[in-house]
């Protein structure tokens, strides 16, 4: 088969199997042409042994962007290289680091990745590169993460010159015990921050402060390391890395690497004929089921395929369904499909990574755990089951196929969701749109405060430190609370303070909940305690590596969820109650009877029940739950409307609740178009007379303490956000509302009341008022 026809021919054979060729799920097809490489000579400063090692691996000449980034790093400049997937960014940092090691037998380096899989892959690559070279026999690169046993950790601390880790372990296992790492810090020449685009939201804000604390420690011990950032997709690479490290950065963005032709297909599953959802709404074929069918089809065609699914649960469902389809159509291939996700035990992850890399597995359903730069050669196709939340992540996932310059196919399968539906019918909003700027807020006091305590515990805070963190007021608050003490030399922690363990930099609170099979006492996996009430509550269906379990008990005090094996023909989703108190208005704009504000709020939330849904999407029943309340101080974008203006727009008072509620749901579903988030990062509330405003009011808030920057972005891009929301609701073909427009899978009120037509009136009214000239 010729390369330039690979993607379209593979897709054509799949479409030929559709039962109704006139109702094709394909909404758009685009072909991205090939690009040729631009080479250059090896820099003169590269050590001959390093150059020989790369030449031995078949790299006779580097690409231009690799040398440009490496030159900047050698000159002592912090650099962010932002080029396409499979563009050889690893070489750009390996060149200066290995050359420094060859010339300085005492130098050390630190490599950070946001996922364990990527760190393991990069360590494997470096070990393979230097194998058999006597010049690097003393290097001993070593993994240092949560899967590393204690004996190897001690050995790495004493002997390794290149540590591969992640921000979590850097925070908990290195910075907190920095005295044991004195020699490593004192000789630290380079820090690599791989996949910079992944450091966004709460995780990015925590990671920024971990990095800044690391640089502070290195400088305290006499080193001044150069930071090299790498990312395939970020709008502002220099600014993004600069915010992470608190220093100036130079960006390299001109990509000189080749890539093969890529076919991109946008795919919208059709409606199920006989099935109705909540309030008799039409139900589309689930994205996970559609993706499973495509995965099975592609595997039968011999295409090595990755299928990205939004959730851990969806990953398991997709893999199981693909295996079932293959068991019927091609039994010999059924065991060559598997699931891969975070929460698996280390041995399971490593086994799956090897099987995928070796070609033993032909198809893998995965969360974004395999989105990042793990070098999986020879992949032919990628299925993206549900828009991943950002344009950056979409292209990162798409780039996993065709990594050796061959042709490839990428299929985005839309979920029954407003944003997904909008994108498959407005392809320019995805395929012609620039990648987003990363959203981080290291100055969030709920994030910065605990890190200041960690920094003070590592070494007393000086005036210069407090100035660098921009935290004078916050330090005074910590002193007033008795957590810091002022001395002549700076600020010291209160006696007995041990703040490192209190921070979960992934955004959760209180660590991990263990999930145990009570019939065998086997540890199945873990889940963040902040997500436990929603994902492993009593009665929840939990999937683990093609096995199905039902949760019997959730003990939040002991961080334990107990489960038994069961194969129910239904799924579960929680329902919650929320209330919002306005604390302070940060910014506000008035447009006559419309006021748009950015506010500090306190959200009180409680999981009250869960729905059981048949696999078709049909609601079976609602089961009450007794869960404790959660109180969340955060930030929200809020708008209010005068009641008379709503009435003048044809929305009578008894329609206010359904209109505002539906408009809130639709807006939450569409916020990801203007902010780097999805609906699970945010929450909302609507009311026809809020106690704090006395007016019809809609809130959309960040689901993290102190906020994560998403609501603020919604405030800044309010008109574009609401305009796209109105377009999505208007374009949906359902009569009275469905999950593709105004229904929400996480609605605490069971999607009641909702009024699609009146919601569209509200959205259009907002746009008219926002765009109207001042009186």
Automatic annotation (TrEMBL):
Domain named Helicase ATP-binding: residues: 70-252
Alphabetical UniProt keywords: ATP-binding, Helicase, Hydrolase, Nucleotide-binding
CDD domains: DEXHc_Hrq1-like, SF2_C_Hrq
Domain Helicase C-terminal residue range list: 294-446
Gene3D superfamilies cross-referenced by the UniProt entry: P-loop containing nucleotide triphosphate hydrolases
Molecular functions per Gene Ontology: helicase activity
PROSITE patterns given in the database record: HELICASE_ATP_BIND_1, HELICASE_CTER
Entry protein name: DEAD/DEAH box helicase
